Amino acid sequence: MTQGNIQNLDALQREIAQLMVKALNLEVSADEIDPDQPLYGKGLGLDSIDILEIALVVSKHYGLQLKADSEDNHRIFGSLRSLSDYVAAHKAA
Amino acid sequence: MSSSPLVSHTALEQPLAWFDGESISVSRFLADVAQVAAMLPSGDHVLNVCRDRYRFAVGLAAAITADKVSLLPPTHTLEMVQRLKAFAPDVFCLHDNPDCDIDLPRVLFPVLNGKTIGATRIPTIEDDRQVAIVFTSGSTGAPVPHPKTWGKLVLNVRAQAECIGLKQNSGCAVIGTVPPQHMYGFESTVLLPLQSGNVLCGIQPFYPADIVSALENNPVPRMLVSTPLHLRLLLEAGLNLPSVERVLSATSPLSLQLAGQVESAFGVPLLEIYGSTETGQIAIRRTTAGESWQLFPEVRLVERDERFWAEGGHIEQPVSLNDKIELLPDARFLLHGRLQDLVNIAGKRNSLASLNHHLTAIPGVLDGAFFMPDDASHEQVTRLAACVVAPGLSAHDVLDALRQCIDPVFLPRPLLFVDELPRNSTGKLPREALKQLIHSLTRSETA
After folding, report:
1. Which of B233, B237, B408 is facing A47, going by the closest CB pair?
2. Taking every annotated instance into account, which residue ranges of this chain make up the domain AMP-dependent synthetase/ligase (chain B) (predicted)?
3. pLDDT for B446
């Protein structure tokens, strides 16, 4: 991966963190979200309603539709990093 | 002794379900029921947590034919499972998730092979057989059981089919976004298709795109059983919507605006269902046609002791309702919000008393109280706040402890640490005082 790609990924991660904080009225700021912390349960403490809300803002913002039929779904929402990686790979050009 | 059939389909070759991309006939269903019934352990109580609706329905029917009772608790937290074990020590868990870690003897739902010889005619079940026990969270933390007998469940969903205009044996595919274990999903996505000769759909779509493909993958006619939350997200996603015959919504009130948007997006009526775990569904309205609700036939609302009670029809025994009600002529009524103590978040119900009980039972918590904000908007999910006096504990400690015993939708956001709660001289905590405290704390945080 080139340096530029990594910077883009970091920027994307920050942007998605900001979208999440805004959509869910989270009490943490976007910078405080550890990219490797689990989003569900013990980590950030999100539940399936939050995941639906995030999916909506992410799909609108990046022009992609999330589907639950792949076993990947739980992994995609495993952490901010995995969600950002998924968006980077699937977003509309 | 009166009895009712396990399913109301009229012929063995009639389609009964759609599962894993395949149409399932009544005879195939009966074979699947026999296969699962033969592998169930000896305990009389089943916690059926199958996520796929067809597997849930097969598990339910297998339990019924094997004389077992299905338990439907409001949540599957560690504490709830312990409580179920105390309620029914022989309970076992039927699941379809290899990662299931529910702390009970577990039976993984088998791969259905269609080879077991099933019943050659549709079994009938005695109407007074207790087939399920649905639980609500009680005010002291112990769940409250509400037994359901077969005849009343059947009566309820047959009345529903009539009220919503769902024709018997019309091959209508019922697609639901709600889990089959929730009372609304249990009735409207499992029992309704089975007791109207229509088609149950196994899949439980999650994202808007999943809802669209679940609809597309089923032949017409079809109906969608959903909630205000899912309907809002579905419309906001801006996808092309496949045709449906009708849309049902329940779990929380739908705004007139969203109801109108749903009707124009699908071009069909949107019907709202009113009910509760204790009563089952008891009334219906077309939201765009007016605010008032029409009671199901035979069901009555009676005012006693400054509360309204639902009785008659399929209701097992008179149930005191947790809503403010205004009776109108012709078996119609208006709803004017919930009585104080009750909270309903995304269709999950709890009482503040019960939540406070769990909060203050945490070791190290000296005092604490949950708070339901006023601005409970319709489709945006409102979250609870809580204040806690717990020197020496972190927010993580408190949240981790709560997560063991309450459903995640009730976890407080925000959770505020205070030195003391504004209790009055009698030790009571006026809602207004708590509200002011929370407002002052959250204002200063964002300032």
Report:
1. B408
2. 19-288
3. 46
pLDDT digits (tens, 9 = 90+) for A7-36: 777 899 999 999 998 888 777 888 888 999
Nearest-by-Cβ selection for B207 from A27, A42, A67: A67
Fold of B342-446: GMP Synthetase; Chain A, domain 3 (3.30.300)
Query: Among A25, A41, A49, whose Cβ lies nearest the Cβ of B229?
Result: A49
Of the candidates A45, A53, A59, the beta carbon closest to that of B399 is on A45
CATH, range A3-90 = 1.10.1200.10
> CA-nearest residue of chain B to A26?
B413
State whether A68 and B237 contact (CB < 8 Å).
no
Contact B346 A49 (CB under 8 A): yes
A65 interfacial to chain B (CB closer than 8 Å): yes
| CATH fold label, B3-338 | Rossmann fold (3.40.50)
Predicted pLDDT at B57: 98
Which candidate, B125, B132, B171, B172, places its Cα nearest to that of B149? B132
Q: Identify the DSSP state of A79.
A: B
- Closest by Cα among B205, B204, B247, B254 to B232: B254
Shared fold status for B3-338 and B342-446? no
DSSP codes joined into one string, A9-61: HHHHHHHHHHHHHHHHT-SS-GGGS-TTSBSBTTTT-B-HHHHHHHHHHHHHH
Q: How far apart are CA B102 and CA B108, in angstroms?
A: 12
Beta carbons of B206 and A56 less than 8 Å apart:
no
**pLDDT for B212-261, tens place per residue?**
999 999 889 999 999 998 999 999 999 999 999 999 999 877 888 899 99
Is pTM beyond 0.95? Reply is no
Give the distance from residue B409's alpha carbon to the nearest chain A alpha carbon, in angstroms. Answer: 7
**Percent of chain B beyond pLDDT 90?**
74
- Interface confidence (ipTM) of the complex: 0.80
Amino acid (one-letter) located at B181: Q
Q: Rounded to 5 degrees, what angle do the CA atoms A36, A38, A40 make?
A: 160
CB of A37 within 8 Å of a chain B CB? The answer is no
Give the domain ranges of chain B.
3-338, 342-446
Q: Residues 6 or more apart from A54 whose CB is under 8 A from it?
A: A19, A20, A23, A24, A46, A77, A83
